[in-house]
Amino acid sequence: MQRRSRQRDAILKVLEMEGVHPTAEDVLLEVRKEIPNVSLGTVYRNLDQLCEAGMIWKVQVEGEPCRYEGNPDRHLHAVCPFCGEIRDVWPSGDPVSRDSLPEEFAEAEYRLLLISPCKKCRRKDLKPAGPT
Ligand SMILES: [Zn+2]
Ligand SMILES: [Zn+2]
Which ligand has its closest atom nearest to the C-alpha of 57? Predict the structure, then answer.
């Protein structure tokens, strides 16, 4: 039990950093600096449990591995289709106001993604990769 919560704490510590949206594998690399023998399966299991407990959140981007974050505030995500960079977007005002939702969906979570080349990729004059 002791070991398990140590892993959980290490995972939470990674996700508490501001503005980070690591994949499970990124989390694994960070956690291994502290607990070298931790496995990817353990990381996934802990991430799932933390998601279920509402302590962290999943950011799902189509065609990409899930990202995780520990930021509890309601915000949107902008994703670069070239490099996968994710940035938090803090809308001024509520773009999807609770009043505009049907009553039975009033508890809807924010899962909106804004897709845009990031600053770095815009400079490279890339064409978006089509569906494979
Ligand atoms: Zn980019
Ligand atoms: Zn975020």
Answer: 2
Tell me how far the alpha carbon of residue 40 lies from the centroid of ligand 1, in angstroms.
27
Residue 132 has pLDDT above 60, yes or no: no
Fold of 73-123: Dna Ligase; domain 1 (3.30.1490)
Give me ligand 1 centre to Cα 78, in Å.
11
The structure's pTM equals 0.77
DSSP percent split of the chain into helix, strand, coil, nearest 5 = 40, 15, 50
Q: Containing H/E element for 113?
A: strand 113-115
Domain 2-67, CATH class in plain words: mainly alpha
State yes or no: pLDDT of 81 exceeds 70: yes
Ligand nearest to the CA of 117: 1
Domain with CATH 3.30.1490.190 in the chain: 73-123
